[in-house]
Amino acid sequence: MGQEGVVPVPSEREYLLHLRHTERGREETTSIVMVKGKRVIQRIENAASRQATFSKRRNGLVKKAFELSVLCDAEVALIILSSRGKLHQFSSSSMIETIKRYRAHSREDAGSTSMEHDIEL
User: Fold this and answer.
1) Could you give the CA distance from residue 96 to residue 61 in angstroms, rounded to a whole number?
2) Which residue intervals define the domain MADS-box in the entry (predicted)?
3) What string of H, E and C letters represents the secondary structure of 20-57?
């Protein structure tokens, strides 16, 4: 007990220990950096938690899409369909025009066999 310099490490976290050597001799300083834990991606069983997570992540996606369109002058279209069938969308310009441009580019790909060609406007 009472060991100085010993940092307790919670079992649920991973830590990296970084050693920095000074240019004068072998003096060492240590710093502990916490690495974010990985979350297992699977369906959320609780309906209220699932809806709250959907709403937060949807808003995050829309924010990132907007930022990408502004920062990089990109034409961005985002379509999200919820499990309840509700449509959520974002477009930096006209959604219809963006989809038309997308379809035109898709047709240029000779080997494209995806369902984009089945989309009717």
Assistant:
1) 20
2) 34-94
3) EECCCCCCEEEEEEEECCCCCCCCCCCHHHHHHHHHHH
Nearest alpha-carbon partner for 103 in 114, 89, 116: 116
- Residue range 23-51, pLDDT digits in tens: 445 545 555 555 677 878 899 999 999 99
Rg (CA), the chain: 25
Range name among 8-22, 33-47, 89-103 with the lowest pLDDT average: 8-22
Q: Residue 96: pLDDT above 80? A: yes
**Predicted model pTM:** 0.58
CA 104 to chain centroid, in Å, comes to 28
Q: Centre a 10 Å sphere on the Cβ of residue 36 and count the other Cβ atoms it contains.
A: 7
- The tokens for 110 are 């000779």
Type and span of the H or E element at 47: helix 47-72
C-beta atoms surrounding 25 within 10 Å: 7
Kindly state the average pLDDT of the residues 76-96. 95
87, two tokens: 């449509």
